[in-house]
Specification:
2 copies of one chain form a homodimer. The first copy, chain A, has 236 residues and is an alpha+beta fold. Chain A is 44% helix and 24% strand. Chain A has 10 helices and 8 strands. In chain A, strand 7 and strand 8 form a beta hairpin. Chain A binds a DNA duplex (30 and 30 nucleotides) through helix 8.
Amino acid sequence: MNSPDMGPRNRLLAALSPRDLRRLSSSLEPTSLEARQVLDGPHDSIKHAYFVESGLISVVGTAEPDHRIEVGMVGREGMTGLGIVLGDDRSANATIVQSAGTALRISSAALREAMKVHPAFAAILLRYVNVFIAQASQTALANGRGRLDERLARWLLMWHDRLGDADLIITHEFLALLLGVRRPGVTVALHDLEGRGLIRANRSLVRIIDRDGLQLAANGFYGIPEAEYDRSIGLN
Amino acid sequence: MNSPDMGPRNRLLAALSPRDLRRLSSSLEPTSLEARQVLDGPHDSIKHAYFVESGLISVVGTAEPDHRIEVGMVGREGMTGLGIVLGDDRSANATIVQSAGTALRISSAALREAMKVHPAFAAILLRYVNVFIAQASQTALANGRGRLDERLARWLLMWHDRLGDADLIITHEFLALLLGVRRPGVTVALHDLEGRGLIRANRSLVRIIDRDGLQLAANGFYGIPEAEYDRSIGLN
DNA sequence: GTCGGTCGGTACGAAAGGGTCCGGACGCGC
DNA sequence: GCGCGTCCGGACCCTTTCGTACCGACCGAC
């Protein structure tokens, strides 16, 4: 996985004891994540859980084919495959790679087994599930109550957190899909944020200029799941 | 709890083996749920989990004081206190009684202990968490993509499922709060549904007339978490 | 029966956002 | 350096929803 002198880049795995981690590592298979790759469709049987090391994965809620929206985001602080953690092998949501990167993946069976053998590991994953619920809840809140520019600010901050890069490679089109709005609406909202000096936008690129300003622009819709994560799983 | 010849009315408890249930029953304390009672505020330490027997509880996502919206609903098919199930003692969401009823409650410590001693019990609760994630995800989807009348239809159906009564006692004001919209908007949307012959509305009362029609009106935003529940936890 | 509070119906202008189209700009491949 | 596909900017008009306000209807208390 990583060079032996550094811990794993995934923050859930990093929270494990070195001993548990060593025993687990044989089940963890390094994988590359390609942009737009679909890890699990809705209602698919989940074959692997992914511990993200770099890049970013979207959890997308789906009903009818054209009713889709992002409900959560997973970077190196998290994992996919919560259904497995919860003893089921499927979920109503899809998981789709949004920004290419790498992950350590583990088969469903091995994950179940590992949770049985390492209760501390299971405990960490369950606490992450709780944080994920907070994330989905806040998304529901933002979707219901927030204006487009506020939701956009929230989204940019969350992306920034998880990728740790001020330059986000994304098209307006894709952003519109994730936010569940019209594409030109995203263009206008980005201009608005740009006019306020919070970002710079260019073809397929958004650069974060003023993170604190973006937090203000998000008008309270950003931050709660992130604080929950730090409280519950820790800053490591 | 209930007379010995019938199982518990809560469907999660009903899924337990009679033996596990008997051993658990001493920890379960019958409680009445009063309308508008706040079981847990956001970020409170959760003292008890509630297995609902009748009535209905809302899970409300909160950020700023005036940023609130319902993200999930719990009736006798479910429970509150998912944070405890997940090994944490708090959640970013509030739980509020929406329709009076009764519940069996269990202290956090006893619930943790029971999950340790009865793995089958723990497994059921974790599968319920997975269903709840589906519910919150679909709420995020409906809030982002659905029109007011579609969301209203979804909401009425979910309420109807969980209470099993065609007459719903609720004011437009309160509905507006839960849906995160303006009160007169609810009035108009209810008239619309009424004009289509799907409901009858009166002061503080909504009667479901045509459930199938409401499902059509919900335009695909209703049903996924309910199907997940039946698949994962079973029809009992 | 009257009073006061809650609840519902309605109406207005204003804002946000959707649907659609078009044209220009950029950038990669050849 | 040409061409084509992708991406962005802007425009049009329309629907949905908001904000606010006002008033009438209902209901329980006295």
